[in-house]
Amino acid sequence: MKALPPVFLATFLTASGFAIAADNTVILQQNGTANVATANQDDPAAIGNLIHQQQSGKFNNAESTQRHQVDSTIYQVQDGTLNRAYSLQLDGSENHSNIYQSGIYQQASTLQIASDGSSATIRQQGSHNDAEIYQYLGRDNVAVIEQVGSLHGASIGQYASYHSEAYIYQQGSGQRAEIAQDGADHYARIAQQGIDNRAEVTQQAMNNSVDIMQSGYGNDANVLQTSWYNSAIVNQDGQFNSADIIQSAGFGPAGGNQAMISQSGALNQALIIQSGYSGSASVSQVGSANTATVIQH
């Protein structure tokens, strides 16, 4: 049987939008004007993977790469104008990346490297939103970012992390949220609605949890936990409130601290620092320009 020339094969695959090689599958579907989709699974060590890209609208760009990856999937769906999606999965297995965007000038990227059984999901609706998920050297991690509105920014990084979960939900305009976790069995959630609220979470060691909820304008929340079995809750409603929680302890399985800050009103400030074991602190403020500081060892 006469071999088909390379030019013919390339033309056939482009026209059909469907390709299979080394048990990998690529499906590309586009409807609109000047959209660009790129899928790369040419590495011989990429086996049993799927990339599915779907775009409608104008000037959208979707790019996916899977190398040294086994039994993993990437889904990218974009509708609108000037949206960009990028996904990379490298040196892992059974990972899943999903990006869904509708609107104008959204940007989303997921990177899962040396990870197994992890999932990353980004959903954005509106304009000029940006979301990033990085998961390196871990297993069974879950990261989700959902943003509705405009000018939001969100980032989740889980590094050398195992069985951890991170969630960011934002509505309104100009929200900023960041979660960084390393270690094992962490949980972090940030939920914000309103305008120009900020939240940041950093967790290390094991079995820490954070829940931040903010609504209003210009609120700021920061949580840092570096020991074991700590939990923190921040709830702020109003304008220009500020909350900070720092919980740490010595080496080994130490910690077990609990902290909660609840503020409603304007220009309130609260700080909790716990550096010992099994501490508990709670601050509740209603009104304007109140200040509270708790330091425990």
List keywords for this structure.
12-stranded parallel sheet, 2 domains, mainly beta, 25 strands, about 300 residues
The H/E string reads HEEEEEEEEEEEEEEEEEEEEEEEEE
- Give the helix tally: 1
C-alpha Rg (nearest Å)? 22 Å
**Average pLDDT, to the nearest integer?**
92
- Count of domain modules: 2
| Secondary structure: helix percent | under 10%
User: How much of the residues is beta strand, in percent?
Assistant: over 45%
Distance between the termini: 80 Å
Number of beta-strand segments: 25
Strand order of the largest sheet: 1-2-4-6-8-10-12-14-16-18-20-22-24
Give a short account of the largest sheet: 13 strands, mixed
In terms of per-residue confidence, which ranges show pLDDT below 50 for 5 or more consecutive residues?
1-20
Structural class: mainly beta
Outline: flat
How would you characterize the overall build of this protein?
The strands form 2 sheets. Strands 1-2-4-6-8-10-12-14-16-18-20-22-24 form a 13-stranded mixed beta sheet, with helices on one face. A 12-stranded parallel beta sheet has the order 3-5-7-9-11-13-15-17-19-21-23-25, with no helix packed on it. The protein has 1 helix and 25 strands. Mean pLDDT is 92; it is low at 1-20. 4% of the residues lie in helices and 68% in strands. The protein has one helix at 6-16, and strands at 18-21, 24-33, 36-40, 50-58, 61-70, 73-81, 84-93, 96-104, 107-113, 119-127, 130-136, 142-150, 153-162, 165-173, 176-184, 187-195, 198-203, 209-217, 220-225, 231-239, 242-247, 258-266, 269-274, 280-288, 291-296. It has 2 domains: 17-185; 191-297, no CATH class. It is flat and about 60 Å long. A hairpin with a 2-residue loop joins strand 1 (18-21) and strand 2. The chain has 297 residues and is mainly beta.
